[in-house]
Amino acid sequence: MKASARGWTRLADEQLLDLRLCDLPLRLAGTAVQGRITRLYRELAARGIAFRPHAWLAEDWFSPDGVAGFAVPFYLAHPRLTRLERKMTGVVEGSNANWQMRILRHEAGHAIDSAYRLRRRARWRALFGPASRRYAAQYRARPASRHHVQHLGEWYAQAHPTEDFAETFAVWLQPHSGWRRRYAEWPAKRKLEYVNQVAAEIGRHRPAVNGHVLVDPLEDNKLTLREHYRRKRRAERHRHRALADGLLRKVFTTAECARRGAPPGAALLRSMKASLRATLERRGGADHYAAQQLVRLAIERCEHLDLYQRGARRVLLPKLRAALVRMARGYIASNELRLRL
Length: 341
Known about the structure:
This protein is mostly helical. It has 13 helices and four strands. The chain has two domains: 7-220, no CATH class; 230-333, no CATH class. The protein has helices spanning 13-16, 32-46, 79-89, 97-115, 122-128, 161-173, 179-182, 189-202, 225-251, 265-271, 273-283, 288-305, 313-333, and strands at residues 54-58, 69-73, 253-254, 307-308.
């Protein structure tokens, strides 16, 4: 079904979900997010960087390796789609000006890394690590680490060397961030100083990689909105389960390693549902609905992984509560508490 220039915004959600992404008459020009991209360009200019990363509409935020630009999610191009995104996922990533600018600065860091091939430099690799390192399915964050800046939340700089650079660049670029004072005693300050130095070096130089290459642009995407959200929910379920599995494996043990007669982990969780929900609400910052869903997720994953109680209950319980609280805080930090199981 082709979306008319006017009528698509008045469609009911069920009708709208049957539209293909490529048929939505959207463009960045004239949108609020385009105004914020212009603001990003002013921030780059104020820092002496002439380069302007290009932007295009796609399914989600991303900056492909080797491309001197970044994609912006289509739902930010029209209020009708923003409302649909919130209904379908529970959260709109970049829904307010402050959040959007944080993401834009981060994506600009990726684009500049690609444009000037910074990751090939020995000093870049020494500070951030090899960009060739594989992305982990679920990285293990160290909240107390002072080797990484804090910008987007969930200690995202620790996810990969390229994310570390993008997060560091974003902190450096943000006006009035006070990074010299804020990170004065942190090893991460060396990375910020490197960004400051390399920005002065590349400032007015033409990038090695240029050209407005578009990767998976919206106009080429044949998925319907319904198919898009189905895929997004599957990916979200996978992320939730990966985090839960990693934490639960540290608390419980497998059938092969369990002592004889050890109760299943799921049975223990079921016997303590009310107590664990209260812990998640009190210490994890979860609301009642989210606490219920988190306990439900933990039970489901214990059954799937066939996990059993490890050691004495009095020793295990504090570890279990801490693991569930960490799950809750992780989902809150990433705005992903609307679990769909």
